[in-house]
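Subject: design request, 181 residues
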């Protein structure tokens, strides 16, 4: 029996000890820190997802009910209205700052009365979260998107999971394009 235990120990090697150290480090964290390290989110991510969902719903409602000029007056960042070129193309950009370490850059397009779109990209802790909404089909798509080599935000995957569990949100299909450039 002793020989069997020794052989298991030698097969385990260095990788097994690293996994053991990693699990021990998770035990030393609290529940919130361990969940964040594993990408599961936590209470803070869930609350931020609910806040963001309310804001996206408000913006999507504004897309459906307001004209371009009314929308720009209501949603533009103070002191940063769209320039003349953006006004001619009926587009607007603004930023939603959730916290000092988390923000979303939003692009709105009023190119056609029937097709008004919202595209949002997360920054900071939510870098990699992409949200898209359209006034025509009343659906809100959320997905995780990063370029090759980019490091996603620490809460990005958890935020996508939290948003996709909320009513009215769904993950974008693997073959469909989420954002229009």
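Subject: RE: design request

Done. Sequence follows.
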């Amino acid at each position: 029996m002793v020989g069997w235990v020794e052989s298991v120990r030698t097969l385990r090697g260095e990788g097994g000890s690293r996994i053991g150290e990693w699990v021990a480090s998770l035990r030393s964290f609290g529940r919130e820190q361990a969940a964040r390290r594993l990408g599961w989110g936590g209470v803070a991510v869930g609350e931020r997802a609910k806040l963001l969902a309310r804001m996206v719903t408000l913006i999507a409602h504004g897309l459906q009910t307001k004209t371009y000029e009314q929308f720009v007056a209501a949603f533009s960042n103070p002191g940063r209205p769209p320039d003349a070129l953006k006004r001619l193309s009926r587009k607007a950009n603004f930023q939603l700052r959730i916290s000092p370490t988390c923000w979303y850059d939003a692009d709105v397009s009023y190119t056609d009365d029937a097709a008004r779109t919202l595209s949002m990209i997360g920054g900071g802790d939510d870098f990699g979260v992409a949200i898209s909404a359209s006034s025509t089909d009343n659906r809100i798509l959320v997905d995780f998107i990063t370029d090759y080599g980019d490091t996603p935000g620490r809460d990005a995957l958890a935020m996508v999971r939290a948003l996709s569990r909320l009513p009215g949100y769904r993950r974008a299909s693997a073959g469909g394009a989420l954002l229009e450039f």
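Strands lie at 91-99, 102-109, 117-124, 129-134, 140-144, 169-171.
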